[in-house]
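Sequence, structure tokens reproduced for reference:
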Amino acid sequence: MPYRRLPNTDQARLRALKTAQSIGAQLPPMELAFSQKRLFDIKAFVPQYEQAIQQYQFSRDRQGKFGKSLAEQFKMSRMYLSHFLQVVNMAITRGELKPEVRTFYGLDQENKAIPEINTEQQLMDWGKKVIQGEEKRMSQGGSRVFNPTLAMVKMRFEKFQENYDFHKDLLKTSQKMHDKVAIERETADELIVSIWNEVEASFNNLDPDLKRQKASAYGVVYIYRPSEKDRLE
């Protein structure tokens, strides 16, 4: 015997509710297989559920689109920061700067390696250290580093930081919308179960096949098990 399967996506839930709503608009109350209260519940709930889904999708799309821009800003800022430290290392090798200058950037003075910057958080941490360290070094009379200059590194980093902060806000908004949809989803499931229970109860006196046929018109979904499909073929 086929079993009833509830919708498992938001779009499927909306289809189920809108199917019941459509039939409720076509049939008079006495002929409807579920109560007028359920019909009222559907009319009140569907718009807010649909709006929540649309807001979440809009937020996700915006987040994804802005994420591409953030990735580009990350790439550029990391490159400028890395090049700056490479220039410092070359100046030390040439004897133009002393190894101790590395300590201004939070590095060991004997360590020539460029710090690992593979994540946004690493870039945030090292960007701040290098910029603040270089500003402190310059304030103490240190000679300028060129190609790239601190100003160029700082410009790229601040652009990345601005994008990074905005993207974090978008993530928070998306999560908020996600949580809202999750709550609405629970309500949708409860409403669909109530409607389908009432619909099936209305057709209980019919032959099982006819009952499922009538209920299916209201959006109730029945699934045949593999063994049952084989017998039908």
User: Anything to note?
Assistant: The CA atoms of residues 70 and 163 lie 6 Å apart. The first strand starts at residue 3 and ends at 4.
